[in-house]
Each structure stands twice: as C-alpha cells, then as structure tokens.
Design brief:
Number of helices: 11
Number of strands: 10
Shape: elongated
Strand order of the largest sheet: 3-2-4-1-5
Largest sheet: 5 strands, parallel
Oligomer: single chain
Structural class: alpha/beta
C-alpha cells in the first residue's frame, strides 16, 4: 500500500521578510510541490531567504483553487510533500487553503503546519483592546446593504472583532461600523504591520472614520471592541409593557414574555410586571 504524502501549510511574512519562520526555508527546499498564491511573490521571498525551491511550483489562488485542488490531492495521495504558501500570513485565513485542507483530510492525508506571522493576532495584540475572547470576521461585503447586514449580525457580539479591509474601502467600512455599533465604540486600525511605515491608530469609531476620510494606504486590519454587557436600559414603563405585548402577540406566554423583557432590559421582573399592570389599567376605559 502506497503511503500518502503530507500537506504543509506554511506561514509567510506579513511585511518584514526577517520574520519568516526558520523552518520555511527547509520546507521550500524539500517540498515536491510548492503551491503559491502568487508565484512572483514566492520568487521574491525565496530570493530574500536565499533558498532554492527543490520541487515543482504551481499557482494556487482564488481563481483556480477549485480546479487545482483535485490535482494537488492526487499528488498527495501518491506520496508527495506539498507546501502551500500564500502572499502573507497563514494559508486558509481569508486566503486560499481551506478547500485543499478539507479535501486532503477527506482522503486521509496528513496535514501539518509551519507556524508563522498572522495579521489577525498581531493586530489584536497591538490594539489595546481585550484579547481574552475574540472572533475573526474576515473581509466585509463590498455592497453597502450587505455590509450593514453583516455588521448587524455582530452588533451584540461581546468578543473583540477583527476585520480585514482594503485601504480604498476603509472609510466606508468604518462609517458603517460607527452606524451599527455606535460612534463611541473603541477600535484600532492597524496599517502596514511589521513594515517600515507601520501605524496603529486607536480611538472611537467616529474619530477613526473622520481620519480615514483623507484616504489610507497599505494593508489594513481593523480591531473593534465587543459590545458592552447588557445593563439597565433607560426605559419607561410604557416601553417595557409594549415589549411584553409584542412578545405576547407573537404567541409567547405572559410570564415568559415578562422574564425575557426583564433580562434584555437589565431590570427586575417585578418592574416589568408592574409596568404591564399599569398599562392595562391605563388602557381604554381605564380598566
């Protein structure tokens, strides 16, 4: 029985080539096949590392990922060592790689990694925002409506949020974040990480939106503070009663509706109950 090969996911520098993991040069020299998102960038990287690629080099990017994956899986199944590198950072993180990993796993191929730089973790660490819990949201949709919908899905997310964004869309993205999350929500825009003109701009979303209006260059990662824990809202009795009524109209029992409204508003259940009673007494005819 022929033993299968190994798929190696290799992290590449996100800016400074000196950050290349030491094992990267050895893997580039030893691989039977090197699948690169951009073969020209790979050539520049190997020159900087002073290493010769030992095997065959093929392109593997968004446009040919679906078509090329079966070819690479067959090579792996035949015993080849395939090295996957993207333009910067770890493969599969908003870059090609997921399809190949999934297909390799399905065929029983060993998958390993050469850990390396990550814009997600670097930006998160530099942001000054909580790092104990976070979620990566990738790139926002280009169209405004779809962008707002995606952001609304994360509106109440309490974990720190990390986004990638193209520099020419940064202002629109920050404006949409300020609209959905509130202009006072803290954030950090991390630009050109590890490069000569690295910049981390921190502040409320409204302030960052105004700053980005002048235009921004370079690779950008945006880190946004998570939503605050639910706390007491400044709601009057009429609004509390209205929220209960909406839930009742949807088929929820009054007891459960009162409990749900109280929890969401951060107030005691008794306060909501009293508001419902008062609203009924103030209804038509005063009954």
């Amino acid at each position: 029985m022929t033993s299968t090969g190994t798929l190696v996911l290799a992290g590449t520098p996100i800016g400074d080539t000196a950050d290349a993991p030491p094992r990267l040069a050895a893997e580039l020299a030893a691989a039977d096949v090197v699948a690169a998102e951009d073969t020209r960038r790979l050539r520049r990287l190997t020159q900087a590392l002073d290493v010769q690629v030992g095997g065959r080099v093929v392109s593997y990017f968004e446009g040919n990922e679906s078509a090329r994956t079966p070819e690479l899986v067959e090579a792996l199944a035949g015993g080849a060592r395939v090295l996957l590198v993207t333009d910067a950072g770890m493969p599969s993180v908003s870059d090609p790689g997921y399809r190949l990993v999934a297909a390799a796993v399905e065929r029983g191929v060993r998958v390993t990694a050469v850990p390396g730089p990550s814009a997600v973790l670097t930006a998160l660490a530099l942001s000054g925002l909580p790092v104990d819990r976070f979620c990566f949201e990738g790139f926002l949709p280009r169209k405004r409506g779809e962008r707002l919908t995606r952001l609304r899905e994360a509106e109440r997310e309490r974990r720190t949020l990390v986004y990638f964004e193209a520099p020419h869309r940064l202002h629109d993205a920050l404006a949409a974040m300020a609209e959905v999350f509130g202009g006072g929500r803290r954030a950090a825009v991390c630009r050109e990480l590890t490069k000569t003109y690295e910049e981390v701009r921190r502040g409320p979303l409204a302030e960052l939106t105004a700053w980005a209006a002048e235009g921004v260059r370079g690779e950008v990662t945006v880190v946004v503070e998570g939503a605050a824990p639910p706390g007491p809202e400044d709601l009057d009795g009429a609004e509390l009663a209205r929220r209960v009524a909406v839930r009742e109209e949807a088929g929820e029992r009054r007891k459960e509706a009162i409990a749900a409204v109280a929890q969401a508003a951060g107030v005691p259940k008794r306060e909501v109950f009293d508001a419902v009673v008062a609203a009924k007494q103030a209804g038509p005819g005063g009954h």
